Fold this protein.
Amino acid sequence: MTSHSDQQRVEALRQYDILDTPGEATFDIITAMLSEMLGVPHACVSLVDSHRVWFKSAVGIDVPEVEREAGFCASLVTSDAEVLHLEDARIEPPASENSLVCGAPGIRFYAGAPLCSPEGHRIGTLCAFGPEPRKLDETEGITLRRLATLVMHEIELRSTQRALERTEAALRQAQRLESIGLVASGVAHDFNNLLSGILGNAELLRRQLAGNPPGLALLAEIQMTGRRAADLVGQVLAYAGRDRDSPVVPTDLNAVIQETQHMLDASVGNRVTVDLELANDLPSVLGQSTGLRQLVMNLLTNATEACGRAGGNIKIVTLAANGGESVLLTVSDNGSGMPEEVRERIFEPFFSSKSGGRGLGLAICHRIVEQHGGSIQIESKLGLGTEFRITLPASQQPAIDAEDDQQESQEVNNGGEGLVLVVDDEPIICEIARRCLEDAGYNVLLAGGGAEAIEMLDTHHSELSAMVLDWSMPEVNGEQVLAAMSQRRMSLPVVMASGHTERDARESLKPYAVDSFLKKPFRLDELIVQIKIAQSQHNHSPRSESAN
């Protein structure tokens, strides 16, 4: 058998995921039966790995494994023999030169049959041996082969059961993600409405404090924190597979790290020190800046918590790897570390070893890395600290400046005109939109729900130049308002506003088309821009002509 063939055989063995697993009664019964049938003190189910022979079950053998070349099992799996039988190994070269024959345990008799996978790979043997010469008659040889077949069937059954368990676990995970998605989707709407009020009022206040640098600095922190909160909602939606709107662009990972470290320093003070070793000329990473920012923040938060109240040191390193094809990020701490049983479950959603922990931070990290086509590994020793190693595909394009949340929003051009109907069940959003639109030159009508919006459409449709419509409202929602417009053959530029993802909103609104989408929480200048986009799209749409 060639080394290439043996490599395939070893790979087939490892696919069964049986090496170094605990003993199991079925295999023990078979080896005991074989030992008793042949009247020899030793029998085993052996699995031949690349450099060792490991015993899944053994009678009269006190070690868990031996070197591959020490016994006869390796010879059997690399041959075509149905049974390997040595009546007296002392007089049958080359077996007579084997250390197990010349020395302890002094093997004379050996009989083994291969364990063959359905693809024909000999992954191990069922064998028996003893210190006295012995013949193996035909009936015993047939029984040995049948027992070996039974062992292989048990290995196959075990593998199938484990595959089913993995499938069931994946299904439970999918159901859990669906539950997370449903909850997160509802929470996202309500939470983003609150953030819209906070960020909108902060932006309006910023315009009034143009000559007050200290006040502007505080407002900038409020706005940055609010947008990070919105990012967190988006990442929970992304973990549940519900946020598919975030743009993927070449991103400067070093800049993301430095920005995130600044936020961490502001929250933890001098309790931990963060050392940065960021590579110069690091390739960009093709990804979502919000996701990468959340990845770094979650890893830093985890490291900070691991350091405890006494504090500690966190080290962040970036490197170009694989000849510039990948970017390596490591985040290490000298905190408490974690035991093996915690380390094995650390990326499971809702699993936490911390009192009061939510168990989502590192699960979100794992999902973000997966979504970026990368890998994440962990090394941790109890009492010595933890290191996370993340590898991400590099982009060959230069980084594009992501939306700089610390920049002041551009002033809204006072170029708006016409009457705009704003429909939202949150009074604070209606009021913020009204003030923004009036500052931009629009006249504004407000409706606190879908039913009121339909009444205003009936009264003012011919006067309206656009409508900003909330998708999710109690009683009469945005879809029902669009349905009422369709029934009345009304044509109007529509901006759909929602804290849900754009794709979810548009899929729900079929067959009712909208002209543009405004993601909550929104900047005030974004509101103006989307109204103008809706008006432009609507004017070039055949819907506007057919409705008239």
About this structure: The chain is about 45% helix and 20% strand. Residues 138-208 form the longest helix (71 residues). The CA atoms of residues 337 and 385 lie 4 Å apart.
